[in-house]
Structures are given as structure tokens and as C-alpha cells.
Design brief:
By secondary structure, the chain is α/β, with parallel strands linked by helices. Helix content is 35%, strand content 18%. Helix 6 packs parallel to helix 7 and helix 7 packs across helix 8.
């Protein structure tokens, strides 16, 4: 199955940053746990200073790495201020186990290439969220680097690309129509929602759970949009959303 085929399905579970309830988020451990246990995985991508696509959620590394120990004077710097070689020195796994009083398990920060290679080997479908790094790189450059990595590994069929920074989606639509895209939103729906989504040329609309209503889901589904809701880990809440017509939920528990 490819991601375009998956978009025709219902009651899908997306593993939010991998199996982050069982392993440190956005790591290989978190992805390995997902195999055979969810419909697709979701990860976050940014660029290093030397323009390598890397997997990290936060703008800085202090929450999910040992950056304070390795680079004590750079704790609050953005991911984009570090080179790929500098990022390779970090442990992004042990914090998770230390929080739970367990033996630390060091994990390297993944590159997008490593992540997609794993997905290719396991035939794992993946939603790649492009973080808003417009303050660090031009939108066109970010989109080009992400697409180059996907194309080099020939895994476009496994991918869906999403972002809160919707100009990325416009650029993606101009470059790779065969890769499905989805608009991420929080707090408020865009004005004239259907017109807005048509202008972006997306196939999906992913909203935070606080924005969900029966009317909105019905409107989107009747107009052919794939609807996702984040982050919903309680089974009863997931079933309620599915009964409303939501296609997929992003969950920390799989």
C-alpha cells in the first residue's frame, strides 16, 4: 500500500513522533516499536546549519537531548544553529528513561535519510511534518532539501507531507503532485476553509482536537478531504471521532 491508497481508509492510527509513550520520541527505537502496530508514523523534520534534514520536534534541543552537557553554552540555540556533525554528538534517548527512573538508553538524533531508509526497509508509511524554520532558511530551500532526500531514496509513495507553515504546502504542490500534503492547524480554522484548502492544493486537513466539530468534519469529508485529529490517545475519544467521520487520529499510545 502507498499513502495515497491509505487516504481512502478510515479509523487510522498515526503514531505521534513514533511510539513516544514507550520510547523517546522521534528516535529509531520509537519507530521500531511502531512496525505492525499502527497505520502510519508521524515525525518532525528540520534542517541543520549545513542543511541536513534531521528529525526533531522542538525549535531547541534542551528538552529532548543532553545538549546542556555537550554544548553547555548553547543550550537555548535553535536546531538550525548546529551542524549535522555537532548534532551527531548528542544523545536524544537517555532523558526519557531517566525521567522514569530506568537505565538510560542513548539514542542518536536521526536524519531524515536514516528515517526514510528504515521506512523503506519496513514498508512503513510516514507523515513527515515540516517544522516552520522560515526564520532560518527560505521556504523554497527547505522544500527542495526535503524533496531531494525523498527522491534519493525513491520513497515518495510512502510519504505524506504536512506543515503548520502553509507556504511549504503551496511549494510542494508545484513540485511534486504525487506526494500528498496536509494542512496542520491549531487554535482557529482558516477563514473560508474550503477555498483556503483548494488554494493550497492539499488532500488532508489535520486539526487539534479542540477544533473538532461534527459540522466541520462533515463539510471536509463531503468535499473529499482526508481529516486527521491530534493528539488523541484515549481509545474512547478516538472512537467518538471516528464515528463523526474523522479518518485518522494521531496518538501517543499505539
Amino acid at each position: 500500500m502507498n499513502f495515497l491508497e491509505l487516504l481512502q481508509s478510515k479509523k487510522l492510527i498515526g503514531a505521534h513522533r513514533g511510539a513516544r509513550s514507550e520510547a523517546p520520541e522521534n528516535t529509531l527505537l520509537a519507530l521500531e516499536i511502531c512496525v505492525g502496530r499502527c497505520d502510519f508514523v508521524e515525525v518532525d523534520v528540520q534542517l541543520s546549519r549545513d542543511a541536513m534534514a534531521v528529525i526533531a520536534h522542538d525549535a531547541t534541543l534542551e528538552r529532548t537531548s543532553d545538549v546542556a552537557c555537550v554544548y553547555p553554552n548553547r543550550t537555548h540555540e535553535r536546531v538550525a544553529s548546529f551542524t549535522s556533525q555537532e548534532l551527531a554528538q548528542l544523545d536524544v534517548g537517555s532523558w526519557y528513561y531517566k525521567e522514569r527512573g530506568l537505565e538510560p538508553k542513548p539514542q542518536p538524533l536521526l536524519s531524515l535519510e536514516q528515517t526514510l531508509q528504515f521506512c523503506k526497509e519496513k514498508q512503513l508509511l510516514i507523515n513527515i511534518e515540516i517544522k516552520d524554520i522560515a526564520a532560518d532558511f527560505s521556504d523554497a530551500f527547505v522544500v527542495r532539501k526535503i524533496l531531494e532526500t525523498i527522491e534519493a531514496l525513491d520513497v515518495a509513495h510512502l510519504c505524506l507531507l504536512s506543515s503548520f507553515h502553509h507556504n511549504y504546502l503551496k511549494l510542494l504542490a508545484k513540485n511534486r503532485l504525487d506526494i500528498p500534503t496536509a494542512a496542520l492547524v491549531e487554535e482557529l480554522h482558516p477563514k473560508d476553509l474550503l477555498e483556503y484548502l483548494r488554494a493550497l492544493d492539499v488532500v488532508g486537513y489535520f486539526m487539534e482536537d479542540a477544533l473538532v466539530s461534527i459540522e466541520t468534519v462533515k463539510l471536509l469529508r463531503e468535499n473529499g478531504y482526508f481529516v486527521g485529529v491530534y493528539t488523541v490517545s484515549e481509545r474512547a475519544c478516538q472512537e467518538e471521532l471516528f464515528s463523526m467521520g474523522v479518518n485518522a487520529v494521531f496518538s501517543d499510545i499505539i
